[in-house]
Each structure stands twice: as C-alpha cells, then as structure tokens.
Design brief:
The protein contains 3 helices and 6 strands. It has 156 residues and is of the alpha+beta class. It has one domain. The longest helix is centred in the N-terminal third of the chain and has 19 residues. It is elongated and about 95 Å long.
Length: 156
C-alpha cells in the first residue's frame, strides 16, 4: 500500500512540474512579442461605436438632391465588401476607396448617427455637415449592426 502511495505522489509531482513548464515557448519572455488580438463578434460585420472599430452600422447609403440635381452621394458598406464612395458635387469632391473612407470617417464621427435618433435630427445633422439649408430629395438607408434598419425618404 505504501509503494502505491509513493508512486501516486511521484506521478502527481511530475504532472505539476511538467504543467508549470508548459508556457516556455521561444518568445514567451521576449518583450517585443505581440499580444493576441481580441476580435469582438460585431467587428466582423462593421463594428460598433462601443468597440471603437466601427460606426454602429454596416451599410450607409445617402443621396441628396438640390434643385432637382444630384448634390451628395455617400455609400459605405462593410458587410459583403469593404467599399466606400463619397461624392459632394457642391464641394467638387468625388472620392473612392481609401480617400472616401477617410472623409466618411470624419463625416460619421461628426454626425454620430444612432438608430434611436429622430428622423428630423438625423436630417438636420447631415444637412449641417454638408452646409445645406434645403433639398429637393433626401434619401437615406442605414443597416445598423443590431439588425435595425433606418429608411428616410423625403421630397420637397
């Protein structure tokens, strides 16, 4: 009985010693090694304002006409493909790809769009961003990360 107990104790000590040495990889103590990146589920589909890696929506499509002519066209999509387009005829801007993403980032950060805002508040913030007082057509479609959709279509 005493031999079995000694063998069992020796086995447990060996398991503990080997288990304690389990993280002795090549770069475990290297101060320049990179830590693992944590990816939140929402970040895969465009992110959220809470994670700091998104705007709270995965699709954004805005069209504004002034005096019956196209004035603004902003498209942002990250769900199926990362694409962006930012057109402001009034400021003679026609941006695509990274330039469009940069301008859209500035735009989204300024207007801080959320699904619980009133339609009029959304329109006012967007119109202020573009420096517009009036429009003949305002069309906005947004797919938020939480599954809600926003559709505003107004003609004057």
């Amino acid at each position: 009985m005493m031999n079995k107990l000694k063998v069992l104790m020796l086995f447990l000590v060996a398991v503990l010693v080997l288990g304690a040495c389990g993280n002795a990889s090549k770069n475990a103590d290297d101060p320049t090694r990179e830590d693992a990146t944590v990816i939140y589920e929402d970040e895969k589909e465009g992110g959220t304002m809470n994670t700091g890696d998104g705007y709270g929506f995965s699709e954004f499509d805005l069209e504004i006409e002034v005096d019956g002519k196209d004035a603004v066209d902003v498209e942002y999509e990250v769900k199926k493909s990362h694409k962006a387009k930012y057109v402001n005829q009034l400021a003679s801007l026609n941006l695509k790809d990274q330039e469009a993403f940069d301008k859209i980032d500035e735009f989204f950060t300024k207007i801080m769009l959320t699904h619980d805002m009133s339609n009029q508040d959304i329109i006012d913030r967007i119109m202020e961003w573009f420096g517009l007082d009036t429009y003949t057509k305002f069309d906005l479609d947004v797919d938020f990360d939480d599954g809600t959709k926003l559709e505003i279509e107004d003609r004057k």
